[in-house]
Every structure is written in C-alpha cells, then in structure tokens.
Amino acid sequence: NIEQNRVQFSVQDTGIGIAEEDIEQTFEAFVQLDGALNRMQEGTGLGLSLVDRLTKMHGGEVFVESQVGKGSCFTVSLPWKTQNAHFESN
User: Fold this and answer.
1) Could you state, in order of their start, the residue ranges of all structural domains in the chain?
2) Contact, 74 vs 11, CB < 8 A?
C-alpha cells in the first residue's frame, strides 16, 4: 500500500494451519509445536525466524492469519520510501 508508505506481500497456503495460541512460537527457530513422538508434521525450521528478524531489521512487521485445518496467510509489511525507489518504464 504505497499511499501509506508501506509495501506488503503475502504468502498463503492450504496446509494444516496454526492454532492462535501457537502463532508466536512459529517465529522461533526449529520449533516443533507438536511434541509427540509420532507427530505428523516436522518443525518450522529457520525460514519464519529469518523472515521475522529481517523484517524487523528493516522496520517492518509480519502478520499471520491462520485457521487450523484450513491453512495460513503470512503478510510482510515494510516501510516504503519513494525518494529511494527507481522505476523503469517499458
């Protein structure tokens, strides 16, 4: 949303979803929300942890919308400075 001096992009999936009480933990490196030995899903790895840290380093935020059994949508919102932007026209 350039009018608000922000740029946003989202990534959405149709996976298992994340319970609301577990969302904050998904940004920790190598978290396994299901502690059972026979768990169906692995962990979060480093990806979301890196996204969260890099986004915050640039003054941005990560938003999560998720429903268990339906999937998740992760949105990254970053400050946009138009004076530094370079556009090319075709």
Assistant:
1) 2-84
2) yes
Options 3.30.565.10, 3.40.50.10540, 3.90.1150.10, 3.40.50.2300; CATH of 2-84: 3.30.565.10
pLDDT tens digits, residue range 10-40?
A: 999 998 898 999 888 888 888 776 554 444 5
Q: Which residue has the higher pLDDT, 87 or 47?
A: 47
